[in-house]
Fold each of these.
Amino acid sequence: MTPGKLVLVPNTLDLGTDCEVDLREVLPQAVIDRAARLGHWVCENAKTTRALLKRVDRLTPLALPLQQIQITELPRPPKGGAAVRGAAGTPDLKPLLAPALAGHDIGLLSEAGLPAVADPGAALVQAAHAMGLTVEPLAGPSSLLLALAASGLNGQSFAFVGYLPVEASTRAARIRELDTLSRRLGQSQIAIETPYRNDALLGALIEHLQPSTRLSIASGLTLPNCRCETRSVQQWRAQPGAALGGRLPAVFSWLAG
Amino acid sequence: MTPGKLVLVPNTLDLGTDCEVDLREVLPQAVIDRAARLGHWVCENAKTTRALLKRVDRLTPLALPLQQIQITELPRPPKGGAAVRGAAGTPDLKPLLAPALAGHDIGLLSEAGLPAVADPGAALVQAAHAMGLTVEPLAGPSSLLLALAASGLNGQSFAFVGYLPVEASTRAARIRELDTLSRRLGQSQIAIETPYRNDALLGALIEHLQPSTRLSIASGLTLPNCRCETRSVQQWRAQPGAALGGRLPAVFSWLAG
């Protein structure tokens, strides 16, 4: 028997917002059709996975009734992302992939965008490779790269640095470190934040980056109220009302000038 | 009059391969529909842009005859990507955006995937921001992030480093430098190569990375012959026939163990 594949299924970017986009705005039709056929899923959150499958079902009827689709949540990773780096103490995820050994394709879904990027799914992909399973990524949106594309910053050298520290003085030091790194390498830096802290991060970036650094914000990507703006830090400082509000996911990127 | 937007239109990942994927495999229906309505384009290559518009037309009829659609090529950037970083001597791209001032949306298209990522389009996005135009990125595939997702490497901290040097000893030094950086930062490193040099780069990576570093190759992403494999360098060394061949675009990523 041919083993099943681990299929990386992209999600929308509207979770937690007031807006539910039409899936056809952000997912290829073939991805919607493929999702409708999968009977086994591993995800971050079973409830939001079921919600997505209901949206899929309205466009392409699910092959199985929703109640018969097996949905398993990933174990929550320890703080600091150690699970992703395969540190000791990582839970054994191979049992989650058992259906593939019985010939079933398994969908991996994250809460937003591509699974295994900026989320705990990478450990499952690692386990799939260790078991010799085929891993198949399906085309879909990544908020990080949509933000980078829309920034006009250097798209030929960039780094995603995840979340910055929350404590103000540690965060300021990290921002200055990343600004120096950006200048030295000519490398765009990309960071994310929990929406309710967006404005705190934006304020800290405007305060601590060099005036000539170009800073880009992208919020509500793929949503009707999408906003992508890039200005020098000097210009941001001169402009009142830079606030993003705390509702929409945002991506921050900058390139030292 | 409301100015037009600069619309970042994703492309397929099949350019230069033997395979022409159905657009519905990789692009959302709304993106296909939007592309069909745009009468002004800026691109890397007018011929491949017309070829894509013909594929769009078979699914959603173009709003204008192809002959009436204005397609302008970006100036070729100088070697080294200086144009992207806005160095002195960068050509003034604002004239390319003149149709937006007359109220027309302009599509920006690259040869593969998201425009302005790993291609010369970022300079046009920068010019759009400088003119105060709205920049709207549309959801679509990025080979870099599909490869990262499928690698199982750290998706919470990663860097795209572009092309590595071609000369063997310089390339070896760069590979060792990036391996050390990956170990120090826990950061996945992502690189690309011109397909005919894929196997030379793969061989150099297998030779010069540390044995415990995990190395991932992703070739033919979104194509029927897609291949995504991640192994330790030690395992790659023990396995004959790691060759990719010189036909398919590939993405290389690694994470020091």
Amino acid sequence: MRHCESCKAGLEQYCYEGNIGTYNGNDVHLGGHTLGGYSAAITVDEKFVLNIPDNLPLDAAAPLLCAGITLYSPLMHWHAGPGKRVGVIGLGGLGHMGVKIARALGAHVVMITTSPEKAADAQKLGAHEVIISTDPAQMKAASKTLDLLMNTVSAAHDYNAYARLLRVDGVQVLLGVPPTDMPPPSVGRMIGNRLTLAASTIGGIRETQEMLDFCAAHNIVSDIEMIRMEQVNDAYERMLKGDVKYRFVIDMATLKAA
Amino acid sequence: MRHCESCKAGLEQYCYEGNIGTYNGNDVHLGGHTLGGYSAAITVDEKFVLNIPDNLPLDAAAPLLCAGITLYSPLMHWHAGPGKRVGVIGLGGLGHMGVKIARALGAHVVMITTSPEKAADAQKLGAHEVIISTDPAQMKAASKTLDLLMNTVSAAHDYNAYARLLRVDGVQVLLGVPPTDMPPPSVGRMIGNRLTLAASTIGGIRETQEMLDFCAAHNIVSDIEMIRMEQVNDAYERMLKGDVKYRFVIDMATLKAA
């Protein structure tokens, strides 16, 4: 670790020797597994310490380190910005960060959701437009209008339906690993429009600090609901139902009380 | 046609209004369908006329207009060149052009084939290395060693097996549309290594001329077998069996005799 080509390029998440996840990774120093955000304390090498800018509240900044960088990294990698039409598929923990960051990058932001009731929230978060993907007329009208798609859906689904929204040379980035197989790619459509199916996971330390500084400059944090440690099981059940706007954060001061 | 964003960018093959294929396309001027290489004569707008450089023999240059540009365009688009390790999957009409052009671009060229008997030919054509993809040991040894894959296989197949050969940020370009569904993408591997699945078809007129000039400068033509018109049905049967090195070309002077 930290000497392969990926690590040298600041892409520790793609380490050729395998990274150690902050949560549930093999702890090579102490044995067992890492505890991530459930840790009471954590010891890391100074190269892996990040600075949370002073103007970001710690609670709402916490999800930036996962959802925030998960969207920031592919948005930067695929050049989201002024003149680009960026679709964000799914309005959850990842998706709401995608809308905020893509908007702050200067892109034209389109939320794509199965839920008509989420349209107003998406616009409040910064989406210029909303497409209800269960409405064939809306999907058809938006055919070949987007340059870049951030696909935050974590269940298996027909990503090819979203590819129809892409212009020539459009890119769809998969951000979730579904537990079951996805459908086959529509190769004909890909070839006929030079479409790209891409993928991305979190970001390296250098880019994560860049993301934090970017969020600080644009006053971006995650929308959170703070819970006490003893609520964690209820929160998990609610999360599975999508009943959270948009990330739960545990108040670690409640750990000892639990 | 010729006024959409793709056409203005020289990407007529990705015309938003639909291109007209030289072969078996709807002939909007005369009705019926276009006859491509079977035409005795063809009338096109001057913007669609190409110059075959004098040093290229017409017979062996003919397949450059299909197989040549089909490989040249994605090799250029995805920046094949010095320092890049480019794999070409499949040694047929497309694949043998991929080897020649990638080699001339200065890339390190690796032929990936199911057929051990094709290894010597691949090296003669310019491949620096050959991987026999049916040999698990060779495939494992080549894991994460390539930057770019030109996948010329036109039947449905497990393209995920080739993705294992890609380094972080590697790109696999699909060049054939299989008649049946491909397997699902291995999203986990894609996300874990920021891999890209891309696709491409032929090239625009500007890039096709650039390709012809490039081939002229590097003395590249297709390896062909010339046939008479009356042999076309036999040639088709042989082509289906892969019994051609690597493209049949019809001597059009034999058309009247047939």
